Each structure stands twice: as C-alpha cells, then as structure tokens.
Backbone:
C-alpha cells in the first residue's frame, strides 16, 4: 500500500506490517498506481503530481532510489493509467483533458 500525507511518500507491506520505502515529495501526490507491463520482476509505481509524472521502482531487489521524472503534465489533465513496454524503454500514458467549465456554457 502507498500512502501520502502532506510530505513523505511511504510504502508499506501490509502483511508484514513493515515500512519498505520512504521518499520525500516536494509536491502533493494527485494519482498513483502500479504500472502495467514492463519487467514482471519489477514493481513500479506511477506517481503524478500537479506538474509532473514520475516512475518509482519499488522492487525489493532494487536499490532505494528516488522516483524518476518521466515528463511534465499538461495543465488540466487527469492521469488514468500508465503502461511500460516489455523492456521498460517506452511509457504509454493515458490521461483525460478536463475542459474549462466556463467555456462549455
């Protein structure tokens, strides 16, 4: 389970009740999910802040490294899903653009 509470992002193993990783975040987290695809041995999280999208390898075998920035986010976009290619060299980001309510009237 991943939880964000206004500062650090903490990753816990619920079964063993142990904290696995902790990472300070400069911006609030708006979206997170486990990435689909990629290397089956990896556990990668998609992290979306208001300004950017990050990937964070949280595999137990991986070194404790900070999330890697993948790309900036477009204003008024809502992240829905993120997938990795089998080699992990490409990222597919699925998001929705939120229209300005004032323009629709």
Residues:
């Amino acid at each position: 389970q991943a939880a964000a509470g206004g500062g650090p992002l903490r990753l816990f193993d619920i079964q063993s009740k142990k904290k696995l990783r902790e990472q300070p975040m400069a911006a609030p987290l708006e979206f997170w999910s486990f990435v689909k695809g990629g290397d089956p041995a990896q556990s990668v999280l998609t992290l979306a802040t208001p300004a950017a999208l990050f990937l964070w390898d949280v595999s137990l075998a991986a070194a404790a490294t900070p999330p890697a920035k993948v790309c900036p986010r477009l204003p008024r976009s809502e992240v829905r899903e993120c997938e990795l290619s089998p080699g992990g060299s490409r990222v597919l980001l699925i998001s929705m653009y939120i229209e300005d309510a004032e323009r629709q009237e």
